[in-house]
Design goal:
About 40% of the residues lie in helices and about 15% in strands. The chain is of the alpha/beta class. It holds the Pfam family Aldo_ket_red.
């Protein structure tokens, strides 16, 4: 079992939320491990090797969940591999320990301290760590207010002599519930929500609540499952989409139409070419420039592709006022997804 002693190490645009919670502005998301429909099965040792490559290249933060299939177990194998064969890196003579972020996603019901503690201990056992850096809590049913009990107990786990949890965050909570929780449970650090050039819901009510309680967003869906790329300019929607593409294609069609999306891609390509970047770089920087966003989660297509170097270039991409005006001109032709879906996270309830 690895126990991480907090220490700060310079990595590309690392953000520090507290002295014991920091990570690069790009995180590795392991949602793809929750579905066999992503690609052909990949051997565990190959996935572990790819996680090592992300880590060696400065992507030291890994996001997963207790419901993401074998993600926690594979992360544990990755942690074990670091003990037996520590990797070297051109970024630093001594890489920090990986930043572990998982989600606690229980079925609504009674939330006792022992039940919450047992669930977190199970995740820690699979992940081969003694303390999780950030536990992100998701709750399916707002009408069952016992989510407040669960969060109270998670907060208690940060106060043990040997804490099981360092920090508590949320996943897909809306603005109203985020405010309610922050008023009753101290030190909520993050909320993980969908955020992209298409889905700008977090720029509204969510931003105001985040600023009021010093909560930062971890965002996913920023590249719309890879649809925000040069590959789809002048193309029809994918006929056999991955689960991620299917999800974000629905968002695109709720926002506007595939033709309007094509117009957006053309504008993004124009901006990208002008600055010497890619559409993905521009789309990522659009989200990262928001002051209440801590990091973007890059979905890892393990065994398919990585794009590590290209992803890092997003941090260098600077968007001018003129660039933003061109983007906003297309955005305004579509619908605001808050009017269609509801607030952040409402698509899950």
């Amino acid at each position: 079992m690895i126990r991480r002693r907090p220490s700060f190490h310079p990595l590309p645009q690392t953000i520090e939320l507290t002295p014991t919670l920091y990570f690069p502005r790009l995180l590795v998301g392991l949602w793809a491990l929750s579905s066999d429909r992503w690609n052909e099965p990949v051997a565990e040792h190959k996935i572990v090797n790819e996680l090592r490559q992300y880590y060696q290249n400065g992507m030291i933060g890994f996001d997963m969940a207790d419901i993401y299939g074998p993600a926690e177990k594979i992360y544990g194998a990755f942690i074990e591999s670091l003990k037996t064969s520590p990797p070297s890196s051109h970024l630093s003579s001594h890489l920090p320990q990986p930043v572990s972020m998982t989600k606690f996603v229980p079925k609504p019901g009674e939330m006792t301290f022992d039940k919450v503690k047992e669930a977190i201990e199970a995740s820690l056992g699979r992940m081969k760590i003694e303390t999780v850096d950030l536990i992100q809590f998701h709750w399916w049913d707002y009408s069952d207010k016992r989510y407040l009990d669960a969060l109270t107990h998670l907060n208690e786990l940060t106060k043990l002599d040997d804490p099981l949890v360092r920090h508590v965050g949320l996943t897909n909570f809306d603005s109203e519930r985020l405010e309610e929780i922050c008023q009753k449970v101290p030190n909520i650090r993050t909320n993980q929500v969908q955020f992209s050039i298409i889905d700008t819901r977090p720029e509204g009510k969510m931003r105001k609540v985040c600023e009021r309680y010093n909560v930062k967003l971890l965002t996913y869906g920023t590249l719309c499952g890879g649809l925000l790329s040069e590959k789809y300019i002048g193309q029809s929607p994918p006929s056999s989409p991955t689960p991620s593409q299917a999800k974000y294609l629905q968002s695109i069609l709720q926002w506007g139409s595939w033709d309007l999306f094509q117009e957006l891609l053309q504008v993004l390509q124009e901006i990208a070419v002008k600055h010497g970047y890619t559409i993905a770089n521009v789309a990522t920087k659009y989200v990262l420039r928001q002051p209440h966003v801590a990091a973007v989660i890059v979905g890892a297509r393990l065994g398919v592709n990585q794009h590590i170097e290209e992803n890092w270039r997003s941090l260098e991409c600077n968007l001018s006022d003129e660039d933003l005006e061109k983007i906003q001109a297309v955005q305004q032709k579509g619908k605001h997804l808050e009017d269609v879906i509801g607030d952040c996270g409402d698509e899950y309830r």
